[in-house]
Amino acid sequence: MVQTWGVQIMPTVAVVAWSGADCHTATATATESSLEDCVPFADRGPLVFTLGFFITACLFLPFGRYQLKVCMSHVYFMPLFFF
C-alpha cells in the first residue's frame, strides 16, 4: 500500500504518515470498526498539512482576493476547464 505523508502542526510539530493498510485493523472485524480508522490523519490533531492541501490552497487563494463581481464570473466558467 502507498503511504500518505503530512506535517502535523498542532499540538506538536511532527512528520506523520498514514497507510490504507491501517484501515480496519483496530478491531477484529470491519463491522466493529468505525469509519475513523479509514480517514487519513483522523487521530493526528486538528492541523495536518499535506501536499494536496497546499496545492488546493494555492489554486483557490486568488479567488478570495478578487472583488465579488470578478470572482463570480470565474466561478461560473471554471467547471468548463475541469472536463
Explain how this protein is built.
This protein has two domains: 1-49, no CATH class; 51-83, no CATH class. Helices cover 30% and strands 20% of the residues. It is built from two helices and three strands; from the N terminus they run βββαα. It is elongated.
* Unreliable residue runs: none
As a percent range, the share of strand residues is 15-25%
- Helix and strand element order: EEEHH
Total domains: 2
Mean pLDDT: 79
Oligomer: single chain
Shape category: elongated
Quickly count the helices. 2
How many DSSP E strands?
Answer: 3
Structural class: alpha+beta
> What's the main sheet like?
3 strands, antiparallel
Adjacency order of strands in the biggest sheet: 2-1-3
| C-alpha termini separation | 29 Å
Helix content: 25-40%
Any idea what the radius of gyration is?
Answer: 18 Å
Q: What can be said about this structure in brief?
A:
With 83 residues, the protein is α+β, with helices and mostly antiparallel strands.
Fold topology:
Elements: E1 3-10, E2 14-19, E3 47-49, H1 51-65, H2 68-77
Antiparallel strand pairs: 1-2, 1-3
Index terms:
single chain; 83 residues; alpha+beta; three-stranded antiparallel sheet; 2 helices; 3 strands; 30% helix
